[in-house]
Amino acid sequence: MASLWSSLEKDLFNPQKKRLLETIRVWKTGKKKKMSILCVVVDTWRPVQPCLVQVRAEPLRTRRWWPLAELRLVDGKSLQQASLDFDLQFDKVYKWTTSSFEEKKTFLRCLWKLSHRFLGRAVTFVNVSSCALEGMPRPQEDRKDPEEAESQEGLSCYQEMTPKEAADVLKVLEEHEPLVSNSVAFAEQLSRELCVLDEANLRAIISSEQQVTQLMSSIDEALAEVARVEETLQVYDELLGSVKQQMDHIHRENSLLHRMVSNRSKLMDELLFLTTRLDLSKEHWDVLSRADLSSPAGVRSCSAAAEALSACMNTPLQPGSRKLQAVAEQLILFETLKQNFENSLISHITNIFQLQGSSQIPALGQPVDKLSAPSHGLHHEELLPYTPLMAWLRNSSPALFCDLPKVYAQNLGRLYEREIKAFFEQAKTSLLGRRKGSLQESPEKPLGNRHQPRWSLPGSRESQEEPPARGNVVKVLEQVLRQLQPLCTSEQRFLQEFFQLSHEAAEPQGLEASATKGGETLAPPEDPPCTKRRSQPEEPTTRLLSEIFSCLELELRGFLDVCNKVHPFGCLQVLVTLSDSVFGMWGSSSAPPSSFLNTVLGSVLLLAKSSFNKCIGTLCKELEEAKVPSRMKGGILPSVSRFQEFVDFSEEVFRTAQRRGELDKAHLRLASSVFSSINSLSSANLKVNTHMAMMENFHHIYCFLCQKKIPCLEDKRREAKQRYSEHMEKYVLKCLGQPLEKLHHFFEGVKARLAQGVKEEELSFQLAYSKQELRKVLEKYPGKEVRRALETLYRKIHKDLSPEENLLPVVWHAMEQEFIRQYQEFEDLIRRCYAGSGIAMDFTVEDLLSYFNSITLSNM
Fold it and tell me: Where is this region: Disordered (predicted)?
């Protein structure tokens, strides 16, 4: 209950400066579903006006107010039994039912007190006991048992003695101490003394009878005077009652006068507000009616007048003010004026768009080194003065404003389409020159096949023309990209300023995501970034630029196709130039990047990467499937030369590139293909030793990679060195069996018997490997014969190896080391298996060294 009381005071009555006196929970008789709370409240200022308030229980909200002065009748329904119903009569009778009889009594008592205090008993109370109203206990409750009353009265006679009375009692007991032991004598003595005292009191009363008579007459006079005073006070009370009613009436009249003055003041303020804020000056009205937008001064006047009109139309009005006829008519006039001006403005801006879109492009006859994209600066300067009016139109009529960017894109898109096509035609002319016709004649001609390489070998006529064409591709493509950036950026700035389009600067990560994945350069074609960006809601500026430059991406793709056809490796030049230009935009602070241009360049960058990957794939296939000429006698394979030429060319192109991830991947793919091509020599029918041919090619690749020092090919360089060493070892081992063939076969058999478990001391007793057989074999290889066999071997190696690789000294030195190792192995086998036989070869290690040195010196 306390929380309900505090909630009522805090939420409902304290804000209205009312004080809560009493509450009761009730519902309409016969309808218990809707619970209400009746509250008795009074004002916190004078004169106090009591009121009765009906509050809805949930949520707390006021439903009705009744001034208590309008209350006519309070009906308690029953005097004999505790009824929970009661009626309150105001303009009509309200029947209520409460849940507690005590709450009903308390509530009716509060109404009775307020009516007697403030209303002069103007309210009639029926079927309500006076005890309940006055707060006295009921008569039935005062009736008690007589005996119980007498007992309580008797108990009330006993009082505790004071200290003086106790002292007097002790004094009496001391005086009659001899008689205390005899209670009968003591009681008779006290009775005699009491009779003496009573006699004295009676005498004193009889002597004061006259004084008592005088006192009684004085009391009668006082009572008569009190009656006269009461009659006077009653007259005064009746007089003051009428005066109070008159004062209350005057106060109410005064309050009404104050309210009338306040209402007049507020009405005057509201009228002044309406007449001043809804008044458009005649000058502004005339300006908007004429709608002169042909001159800068007229545009400025129209902008100021439009802002004034918007200020009038956006004036905050009360809901009832709009129902006033004058206000409604003024607003209708404003709306008509606004619509007429909007139509004139839209018509004028649309005419400008159409004139600009149908303008003729200038003839493009610039020199090759001065390739430039069209500029729309004059068109933008013509439209920028209308920017304030466009902002006004966007705020006043968004639906009409939304159509203007579309009209602009449709008209200016046609102009840009003609200019961009002319610009790229000029770029193609600058790139191709006289060769343009030859390129157009063979667009379907493949740039390479398995039998004819996609590039020309050094020394050919096409190779002599390659450097100028190669440099021209990079130069023209860089010029095109440099011209496209200011073209798109200026148009983007104009759109954002003129149409007030919301925009956010494209993040560099967005483009880098479209051009970088897996470490360096570009995302794979199956996950293009442009698709990711376009799957999200496009910003208005980018969407509008896409409509204006609808042909830009198509023309740029066509131009890149031409660049790819100018040179066999044009795709590589396009990739490097395009990537550097795109990522170079983010390092330039001179102009903000265009999100639309970034999207277009990201798309063509993916196209360039795809073309580059196709080129590398085709080249890898050519290298792997290249057939070795049947008459090839050795030397470097064509696939190795092609790989070397590509690496030289690509490293030159990527020398200043910012990113080279795709090139590193291409190098690894091509290196693997070249290694596969070299490995295929093992199954080829060559006139030379296969190990020798593979050794030469791996050595050539190893030396080339050591010279280039390409980080991504370090593993391939080490692999080439390892493969080159393996094949040289195999070639040397095969060649060493030729000068001492029988001796070599004999000791191979000895090692085979030892491997089978034959003991070293028992080996000489086998017939095929006896001491006699060993002496026969050794006799066939005296020192002169060994020298002659080595000279034959040297001439054979010299004939097999290609002179450009200069591997003869290396192979001959390896042959010498392996020959000496074999000689030492043969001597060790003779010492172990033929001990004590005195068998030895006819030459020594020193003889072998002298043989090798003399052969080397004789052929220098």
Answer: 136-155, 434-470, 514-541
